[in-house]
Amino acid sequence: MTEPAAAPVEAAGERPHALRAVVLAGGLTFEREVSLSSGTQVVEELTRHGLEAELRDADAELLPGLAAAPADAVFIALHGATGEDGSLRAVLDLAGVPYVGSPAAACRLAWDKPAAKSVVRGAGAATPDWVALPHSTFRELGAGAVLDLIVARLGLPLMVKPASGGSSLGVQKVSRVEDLPAAMVSCFAYGDTVMVERYVEGVELALSVVDLGEGPEALPAVEIVPESGVFDYTARYTPGLTEYHTPARVPEDVAVRAAALAVLVHEELGLTDLSRTDAIVSPDGEVHFLEVNVSPGLTETSMFPMAVEAAGYDLGEVLGKLLARRAGSAR
């Protein structure tokens, strides 16, 4: 009878190859400091789980550095255009560097909030009515006339936000028509196109999704209760100014629909690995899609880690599994 083959024996003193990850954070966007906080947290979590993790900025030294000392996989903790509009991911694809997260084309779609809303609405989900206009339109047609049409169509109050971007930068609630011009001017500081959206009163939710190899899974919803009533940049990143409840204090049927919306957004936009959808539950229980983030924040006040913990997972283990999957698929 043939003896079964013996398992390979490691040489004395030889250790299994430890996964080497490069965590990208920083960049030159308005969200640089938030990104560095996320990246530092990721490195700490990965190191705690025995992975070799190095924090690097997305600068001129990145590609030569990856060529000289290749990583098994890259984790993108960059926020803002560099990390979320697909451009960096397209370059990593050209260089053959595997990374955690959605592909470049899906990121471009998600980054464009009006385009993402159109796709999600086309898939049957609710989303507040909106209009997105570049600065040139106001300059050429006259801001007063255009703003009058917007208010006539969408009513008040309104949410004014950059058509692309994250961390709630430039986001303002406008309740009086006389405040709209100043809100628009402020918002244009963060991008050439502004999206004006009908304001929906209700419970704000952060809906995280992760795919560890068995398809996208919606994690418990995080309910967001900002002290000011508006979840802007200050409320988002200043400890104590916002209360979070995980799981969200919503009826079970609403929680189920919110989870279904998060997975629908993830799949319809072609996202992979992880995402976070922002939504509002109106008083009638309808869940309204607002936007989606392909590079969720991972700071101490970020909602993705809260959802991971509420699901009973360990954040470092989840991040490690995502990196291992990408590293394995590249071999």
UniProtKB/TrEMBL annotation:
Binding site for Mg(2+) 1: D278, E291
Protein's UniProt name: D-alanine--D-alanine ligase
Binding site for Mg(2+) 2: E291, N293
Keyword Nucleus: no
Enzyme's top EC category: ligase
Gene from which the chain derives: ddl
Signal peptide coordinates: none
Gene Ontology BP, a term: peptidoglycan biosynthetic process
Pathway(s) it belongs to: Cell wall biogenesis; peptidoglycan biosynthesis
SUPFAM superfamilies reported for this sequence: Glutathione synthetase ATP-binding domain-like, PreATP-grasp domain
This protein's UniProt keywords: ATP-binding, Cell shape, Cell wall biogenesis/degradation, Cytoplasm, Ligase, Magnesium, Manganese, Metal-binding, Nucleotide-binding, Peptidoglycan synthesis
Taxonomic classification: Bacteria, Bacillati, Actinomycetota, Actinomycetes, Geodermatophilales
Compartments (UniProt record): Cytoplasm
CC per GO annotation: cytoplasm
Entry similarity comment: Belongs to the D-alanine--D-alanine ligase family.
Entry's cofactor comment: Binds 2 magnesium or manganese ions per subunit.
Residues in ATP-grasp domain copies: 117-324
Role played: Cell wall formation.
Listed cofactors: Mg(2+); Mn(2+)
EC number: 6.3.2.4
